[in-house]
Specification:
Blueprint (H helix, E strand, L loop, with lengths): L4 E3 L5 E3 H22 L2 H26 L5 H21 L1
Antiparallel strand pairs: 1-2
Helix pairs in contact: 2-3
Length: 92
């Protein structure tokens, strides 16, 4: 995909990767602007949602890493990883 060239409006070739990067940066900027405009209560809820989402992804990775592990054991491994992260942050 990175070998494909797309002609930009200013008539110079732009790789698909560069165009995707530009779009990603635009989306990021929009999200930052929206986040800055949020009231504190919404920011708190958004933070909680992001944390829950990150935990769900981490749990999926744990299940993939340890096939057949029980839900209880998966949650224990997640808790250990969160504690490790906290210890590492305190050192930094």
């Amino acid at each position: 995909m990175s070998n494909i060239e797309i002609t930009a409006p200013e008539s110079r070739p732009v790789t698909a990767d560069a165009q995707i990067q530009r779009l990603a940066e635009d989306l990021y900027r929009e999200r930052v602007i929206e986040a800055r405009a949020m009231p504190p209560e919404e920011k708190l809820l958004a933070g909680e949602e992001l944390f829950d989402y990150a935990c769900a992804i981490t749990l999926a990775g744990i299940r993939d890493q340890f096939p057949g592990v029980s839900e209880e054991e998966s949650l224990k491994i997640l808790e250990e990883r969160l504690e490790l992260r906290e210890r590492m942050e305190k050192r930094a």
